[in-house]
Structure formats: C-alpha cells, structure tokens
Write a structure and sequence with these properties.
The protein is 40% helix and 22% strand. By secondary structure, the protein is an alpha/beta fold. It has a six-stranded antiparallel sheet with strand order 2-1-4-5-6-7, with no helix packed on it. Strands 8-12-13-3-14-15 form a six-stranded mixed sheet, sandwiched between helices. Strands 9-10-11 form a three-stranded antiparallel sheet. Strand 1 (2-9) and strand 2 (17-19) form a beta hairpin. The radius of gyration is 23 Å and the shape is globular. The structure holds adenosine-5'-triphosphate and magnesium ion. Magnesium ion binds at residues 36-37, 316-317, 342. Adenosine-5'-triphosphate binds at residues 12-13, 30, 32-38, 59, 61-63, 317, 344.
Length: 370
Amino acid sequence: MRIIKLEFEKYRNLHTGSFCPAPGVNIICGSNAQGKTNLLESIWLFTGGHSFRGSRDAELVRMEENGLSQETASLSMTFFAAGREQTARLKIAAGRRSALLNGISKRSASSLVGTFCAVVFSPEHLSLVKDGPRERRLFLDSAICQVRPSYAGLLSQYNRALQQRNTLLKDIARHRELLDTLEIWDERLAGFGEAVMDERLRYVRTLRPTAGEIYQGISQQRETLELSYSMTVSSGSEEKKRSMLEVLSARRDMDLAMGATSSGPHRDDLKLSINGTDARSFGSQGQQRSVVLALKLAEASVLESVIGEPPAVLLDDVMSELDVSRQGYLLNQLEGRQIFITCCDPEAVRLLEKGKVFRVQEGAVREDCR
Ligand code: ATP
Ligand code: MG
C-alpha cells in the first residue's frame, strides 16, 4: 500500500495543494497549529473510517477567518494497492462525505474500507495504556474487524444479548416471575460470548510475538513487552461457553442486585506488562508511548499478513517523550512500509537516513530539500 500523490482543497486549514510522499519514511515537520495532523487525518479518511480525532464531517471543511465555512472540501489520492495504481476521491459537503473509486461513484465513503488500509497512532491513543480496560477492548475489537469483517456482526449480537439480559435483570426486580426467562438469555450470551473470547484470544496470540519483537527493537533490546488476554471467565477451560454459564449462574444474585452483568468478554482486559510489571501502573511516559507504538505497528503487521501488503502507517506526534535511540528506531528501522511521522522538533529530521521531509506552514505543504 503506497500513496503516490495526495491533493487537497479547502480541507481544514490546508491550502489548495498536493504532496508526493516517498515510498518509505516521510517526516512532516512544522510548528504547532500549522496543519500537520490535518494532513495525516486527510490520508486516514481514505481508509473509509471517520476522523481519528472524533471530529464531525462538517468540521473538516475549511472555515474562513470570518467564521463562515466553505461549501465543499475535496481530497484526491493516487495510490498503489492490490498490484495496481488506483485513484480515490472524497468530497465533504453539507456535513457528509461522498466517494469515487477509480472513477466509479461509491454508495458511501465507508465503502472504501479495505481498498486503502492504514493504521494510525495519535496522542489520544495513549489512553490504550493509561485508561481502563474499555480502551484496550476497543483496540482489540477494531483490529479484529479489520482482519475479519464478520467479527463486527458477532460483536453486535453479543452486545445486543447483553443489553437484553441487563434490561431483564432490572425488570426482575419488579416482576419476580420473569426470573425463569433469565436462563434463555444466559444461554444466548454465553454462546456469543464464547465466540467473542475465542476471536480475541486468537488475535492476541498472533499479535503477541510481533508486538514483543517491535517493543524490543524500540527499547534497543533492553526491555520486554508481554501481552495477555485476561478473562472474567475461567481462561483454562476449553469450553468457554460452559464456563461462562457457570460464572453467570454463580453471580446471578449479584447481577440481579446490580441490574447489570458482571462477567463476560465485555469485562475482559488486555494486560500489558513491561519487564513483568503492569505498564499502566508502572510504565514511564516514554515506555507507555513505546507500548502503544508497538501495539499499533504489530497491528499493521498482522493486517499485512492478511491483506498481503503493508498498510500505511500514520504516526502523529510520536516523537515527543522518546529518547534519541527510540526516535532513531522509528525513523530508520521500520523498513518495507510507507510511514508518515509528524513532529515539531526540527532536530528529528537529522536522524533520518532515507526518506523525505515536508514542512507544513500555515496550511501550505512543501518538500524540504535537505
Ligand atoms: P500541533 O503540532 O500543535 O499538533 P498541527 O500542525 O498538527 O499542530 P493541526 O491540528 O493540523 O495542527 O491544526 C492546524 C490548524 O488547523 C489549527 O490551528 C486549527 O484551528 C485549524 N483548523 C482545524 N479545522 C479547521 C477548519 N475546518 N478550517 C480552518 N482551519 C481549521
Ligand atoms: Mg498535531
């Protein structure tokens, strides 16, 4: 997966222009608030996903100094994927996006999913280590959806069954006679739950060695990263459905008192430890950043093994808090994929051995001839 050219018009603060990145590493350098993240975000939209900053589509269209929005933002990208050169166009108007792929209009911008693939790291993703288990479950779920699209359907079946069981738990407080129907929902929940746990376990098993290897590389072989999927249902059991049914039954009174289901994959976690200690409680800023990076780059490797080519890697603001050797690893050791790294510090550019440097200033992007 390689971007050959990106053109933009009225996208956020970016002036009408284009940029032609190198096949390997691209550093996007500039002071604060110049448009670096905007540029990465515009690339990300071609994956068919929403803004990784959580912005609404209407916010992506250029707003003038008088506060009035332009009508339409346009993006066009020529890229090499699936063995051929392709062109995708995106238009954002009246708060919605429309897409054209190789001249053919798509049903929606999200139908671009799977055509151009990328993984993104943005500072908000540090919540993956810093925050609670929910963030880590979301990471696992969205990574699995990319490699196995049918997982999204399974997950929504599980969540629907969970919601229905929780509603029933609350209803039983007022209508005791409904207690008999709880078993049906336990059975349903445990069935979908087993499938969700199996998928997550399988994914973590694939991710673990790659993330460990990348983390060792980032830390110059000084530290090790361990991942494990931690379940509320007995992890030793081969028959997770039976094991989940047992736990649901053992905790029934507690669930009834809370009006919520206290066990199952919606309470599981992805444990992350550095040299044997919990990354969330004991990791330094640089270590936590390195863990998230290792997870994201490992996610890219797993995706590559499924789609047969490396996804583009978008790294927004990863350089801060990393020492020179860790920065050097990112700039020079990740071969065979196209990478975009934004940074404010012009010093980082000096570490780059091969690749292109772009300067972004007040929304204008130009290549820096070093
Ligand atoms: P930092 O180094 O601080 O992360 P950055 O170069 O990544 O900075 P961006 O997040 O890309 O900066 O934002 C650049 C500017 O774009 C901001 O000042 C922001 O106000 C502006 N901006 C965001 N959306 C719009 C829009 N719709 N229209 C015009 N300007 C916008
Ligand atoms: Mg930024």
